[in-house]
Amino acid sequence: MQLPWRAAPRAALSSPLTLVVSIATTLLLGFVVAAAALHSSAAGSAALAYQQSRMCPHSVHPSLDGDGLPLSTAVSLAARSDLGGAYSRIGRPDFGGIATYGRFGYRPDALSHLTAVRGGGTGLWVPQTIATAAKVEVGDRLTGSSLVVTAIYADLTQPVDGWWCSEAKTVVPNPLAGDGASTSVIWVASADDLSALPPEFAPNATVSLRFPVDAPSTLAEAEALRDNGNARLAALGLPLTRTDLLSGAVVAARTSERNVSSALLPLVIISVLVGLAGVGTVTVQWAQRRHSELRLLWVRGASPLSLGFRGVLELGLPLVLGGVLGLVAARLLLPLYAPGVVLAPGTLWVALGFVLAVVVLSLAVTVLVASWRAHRTFQRQARSRRLGLVPWELVVAGLAVLAWVRLSHNGLGTSLKPGSLPRVDVAALAFPLLVVLAAALLATRLLRWSLGWSHHVQWWRVPAAQLALRRLAAAAGPVTGVLLVGVLAVGTIAVGSAVAGAQQSALDSKSGVFVGANSTVQVSQDVALGRVALPSALRGNTTLVGVSTGALVVDPATFTDAAVLNDAAEVRSLLSGLKRTGEVAPALRIGRSANQEIQIAGLPLLKPVAALPSFPKLGTRGYVLARDSVPAVEQVGSWHLWSTLPLSALTSALQADGIHYTNVADRARVLDGLPFLTVEWTFGFVAAIGVVLAVVAAVALLLAVEVRRRQNAVSGALSTRMGMRPSVLWSSHLMEVGALALLATGIGVVASFVSAGAAVPRLDPAPWLNPAPMLPDLLPLLGSMVTCGALVVVVAAWLALRGVRTARMGELLR
């Protein structure tokens, strides 16, 4: 028999709702698989960009460095790179005044990146510190040379800009180091001028070879740059030390991309299976609606398989169109769910391949389900055991228990090695999602049982509730489906948002504990001795802290103004009680430190009088004492300024008052945040999938109401004509839809909050640092979900009542 090939696609137009549902189903399928591919690629590019942001721009390309060279050799070697610097040894240049320590250097275009205080031109540029110490003026000549000073420039200080970043160790002096250990650079205008220096500067020169390039945006570009750069350095054949920072960045970015991809794989597989189940449901509905036609074709000799292909003729084009629209949506919405928008070459083709795969699977499911339905309906085979009898919630709960065991023992699977990326344990990451899925399945089964027994309930004293319950029982299948998807949506959004937010706060809090404040710098003992006063701009936001091995010396009056603390009032109260009255100094015992008197070099005998679980800079081990308890501040190891200001603001204030500093630390850059970002990006995509499921649940609810429009119109019209007030009917529909939305929100929120609360502390990319990740404040998220749910409930109730208001009783009865 020849099937009606030409009529089938047009026949699909007779049921627009089925077309919309078919397109929406594969649209979501296509979006999930395409978004997963795009998100993984964007995560790799974003990880590379993050790593490069922590590198000096001139160090992206592999570079060379050398020392202990003759100055002439250093100059010739520097000329073989795109941006080479040659620096003499540290000596005592004499300009006819007081000889002080200094070194000479040349780097192309260096003078244009300096700030002249006096003078200019193309002669010697002397730093202001050397000019002040040696009383150098513009026009002075270097003794033993023909070189003349033409400019005095402002010394380079930390933090330096990107052009000087790779040379910071050479060009930025350490003012707290010993004489001759570090100094600023006296710059010459050309490399030939270095040959005119006095002979004592000729030996022990250093050289740096840099190769400025545009930063690669994708991993493929970075790998090509790394390989070509190393090949170029190998071709030079220079006896210098090679530095290849880009290789580490590429490895880290690749690892991050693989971690994100592997973590997303189970979620994508589950989403695809759910989507294919949706395609099967649509096919069953199509078979029910085409029952008469399919029976006629079967009587005329069509096999069940041919009837299955008949379903593809009607539903195939909508399914393909939905998949293509899913790919388009995934690409257009990339900035909303991915950590970046830069994709590796060919990523879109990979995403298209995944979309085509799920479209083919959707078509195969359509054929198989339609064939199975025809076989079951027309050939009268015995009914097989229903899958609904399988306790799927127990199966999923068992998997959740196994995931919890992995999570509690291994966390993310991270080795206790600072700077390493977490080896993501997919089973551990899946624990909170498995708990949400088990709760959703259990809630669905209980709701189906409850609706099955709902005919025993007599709530006629509250007609609105009784009618709502009857309508829910009459549509038990769609209701339980909406509840399942709704619980998954709410739980997935909450889990993804909770874990992602916890990673953000954990990185911030761990960085604060590691540094102690937003920014810190080391200063001389003169500040602690009171010989140098702090600038007025630092009052109220900065404190002076002494650091010795295993102990901090703090100022109780100002410490809480600058330090990163969870409970500043408690710390302030404890510090105020640290007043020394004898030979023994009272101290705070931190964490696991011994609760006994202890002697630390340079400090008086310490006696713990109170304890705190953790403390900035010390972590969970050490002691804290008041500054007034230290009789000789010069014996403290080092003194640091802690400030709430950004590092640039802190150093600018110190520079303005001429206060020397070194060893700067910035809270925003002190820790490698890529391990935290990897987990955050993973669960950010989980939250995005939750939003997709929420849209599915809302659309499914609205479609279910629209499908029952005639039934609602008949019952509503009859009820109003029998005396029911419109307000009671309105409240009845609100109760019906609202109860469903409330159940989905409540179960999803409870399951997700409980599972995320248990999992978040163990999803720690840096367990060697305190504090552990903590569940963030989820009340704003809960409020937004309740608001969106209430909006959907109102719209669904309005749709249900619209049919009642516009119904014509005669047509309904007819």
UniProtKB/TrEMBL annotation:
Transmembrane segments annotated in the record for this chain: 263-286, 307-334, 346-369, 389-407, 427-451, 472-495, 681-705, 734-758, 778-801
Keyword tags: Membrane, Transmembrane, Transmembrane helix
Name of the protein described by the UniProt record: Putative ABC transport system permease protein
Species the sequence originates in: Lentzea flaviverrucosa
